[in-house]
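Minutes, project check-in

Agenda point 3 was the complex the collaborators sent over. CS summarized: two entities, 852 residues total, and the question is how they sit relative to each other. Sequences were read into the notes so everyone works from the same version.
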Amino acid sequence: MSSTSEIIVEDSPGKRVLLMGNEAIARGAIEAGVRVAASYPGTPASEILETLAAAAPKLGFYAEWSVNEKVAFEVAAGAAITGVRSITSMKNAGLNWVMDMFMTLVYGGVRGGFLIAVADDPDAHYSSNEQDTRFAAHYAEIPCLEPSDAQEAKDMARYAFELSEQIELPVFLRSVTRISHASGDVELGKIEKRDRKPVFDKHWKMPWRWDVYGPPSAVEKHRWLHGQMPKIKKIVEGLPWNRLDLHEGQSVGVIASGIGASYALDAIKLLGLEGRVAFLKIGTPTPLPEKLVEKLLKSVTNVLVVEEGEPLVELLVKALAKDANPAVKIMGRFTGDMPPVGEINIDIVAKAISKLTGKELPSDPQLEKVREEVKKLVVPRSSTLCAGCPHLGTYWALKRALSKFGGKVPIVNGDIGCYEQGGYGIAGKEYKPSFSTESVHYKIEAPYETLDTNYIMGGGIGLMQGEFRAGYGDGPLVAVAGDSTFFHACMPAVANAVVNKAKGVFLVLDNSWTAMTGHQPDPVTGVTAMGEKTKTLCIEDVARALGVEFIRVSDSFDVRATQEAIEEALKSDKFAIVVSRRVCTLQAMRLKQYTRKKMFLEKDTCTGCRLCVSLGCPAITFNTEENKAGIDPIICVGCGICAQVCPVGAIKVGE
Amino acid sequence: MTELNLIIAGVGGQGSILASHMVAMAAIREGLRARVGETFGAAMRGGAVASHVRIGKGVNAPLIPRGGADIVLAMEPLEGLRNVVSFLRKGGLLLTNTHEWLPVDVNIGRANYPSLQSIKEAVEQLGGRMIAIDGTSLAQQAGDVRTLNVVMLGALAATGKLPISTETLKQIIMENVPRKTVEMNMRAFELGFNSLK
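CS then shared the predicted structure for the full assembly.
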């Protein structure tokens, strides 16, 4: 038996194993002797800390799920200031929360190695945007490492700590979904045992090193930061992940960074162009290995830049070309040869290399035509909440409560978590833009049409207050958020609503876990990342302490009670909070806190009204020929919400 | 065989990702290079999931190019078709479970689920071949519907198209499923394997 969690802590250098990119980053940190790890869950980055947290008790280091990314960043930075090695990890959007500390910490840097590992999400598979965080590393003037596969992810993460200590600055590692959530064979390295004593010296190598306000000034510390760059540039020039493969007779070249290098290598193979294209593999998009870039630019006439995200390398290469070889033609996103949005793949890169080299792509137009024809058979599969999800009950109750306001136009402000699916819409349905000058009422056909706005963690509760301040009066104002989100980003907005006398209903969907990212504990769970029991914070207690006067708590599985609580809140003339509570069913089943029950649908009683179908539970089916609803016995967990929804009592809960 | 491009598709919760990892682990144990790329939406359960498995000496990227899959292994027919249309190569194989997991879009009357016959015809139009087995029933027969992924791996092994020995694959499965379920999973593997004989 050798599961991945056991392999991760095994000190067996040379062993080849399958690791997910995130596990590889964690393993790199473990090999480097990391002492403190802190993060907030966010796909596609969560498994970095999950892996570290599972390893921490076995290897004797510390790992935590912090309340948000900013706190996580500070926990890791504080550890690095005392000279030990630390890592913070987050998803793309998480970095936005840490920018304040990030931009300022670099003025004094760190003493122990500090790795900032960020997983971007081109194509927004799991994110609200496609932001390219490599620019943040550039902005902060620290080096960015960008792996092309799981092996490099592991090796770079390990090396990052050494580099960080050498330059006394944090080091940035930029992953993407196709690294973080892809797996590959990785050769393990040695696990370094580091038993450093944390130390503190406030004038270490620089007066007032850890206090940007300390004399001489922040400007002097900024000067110091600038002064590190020549040293960094010299180091990256010699790193093994920056490699130029250039031979005589090659007139065109490809510069490929991170995962782009893997796509480019496969595309070159697909085109049968091995050895015929000069190849510069980039492992540090910022700062670039400038000498290698210049050498390539001076040797070829045309260059294609392949990178995932925005054109950072392309921009920097263009700047270098001005002096190195102004005549060289640079293809990439600026020339439209790489797509402006979405993620790249072998096909996209092959097409661009085909244009670069004039070598035609193998194609079968007849088969492509058949593919387009056959595609019409494929129907969408909209993302849904799980069978038995407490949010299904809460959203049904909310829909019913809002329907009491007739044709009015409520605004339901969304937030980030499983319940954000309340705004995913229905893939099989066509939505058309409206150009109305008045508020428009839309029917909610499934819970996936409930949310009207959604952007970022904690965003909804703030937006609701703006809508109220604008004087919006065409319908009720609601904001929803989950338990983890409440602590992450909603508390300041709640305090704001109270002291500035805003009105509206804040519906907190408390399922006890950060469920969407894979059930990490949060402040209401009562357990830490390392599995220790801890205090459980209570959302209504916090709301009360923040001065909220109208608070109701309901059980999400009790649809009527939840509906009544929301109705009462909507009628209240105060800022109101409703906590709809029920442990995530998936997690409850896993922890043996929930026993599956069987549901029965009496076909004779069913009138085919489809009300149960509009509950949006994936276990409820509908047979159009019979005009009857059905329950998929494999998917159904027997939560009983649909039985409360059925107007004729056709659905019954069994044993 | 120098390279194998395999897609394992299904609905979130059907175990297709674990299945893909187990195939890749078996490949690595036999000294091959492996890549797995997962594609799935934000949802934990119920969403369309596909894992790209690439085995061979020269593989770099974790995703299979268009028309580059030798085999699509599907835990659910619609998800098989979804991947076949873009990825199955001429002469490729769709090995699918017959049990349908209806999308909410179909349940609310916004889309029609394609029949198994129409899926078969589509695969054949693309120059491929389809094998369909009732993997869900076999998994229930093995003792738990959650062994579906192992039933399908058994069937996959029986095609003889994997560049990995069946013994290595079985060994990897034993190491990666919960200890208490090893026996049941081995039963599931055999049921899947024999369904193709």
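Noted in discussion: The beta strands of chain B are 3-11, 34-40, 48-56, 69-74, 88-97, 129-133.
Follow-up: revisit at the next meeting once the mutant set is ready.
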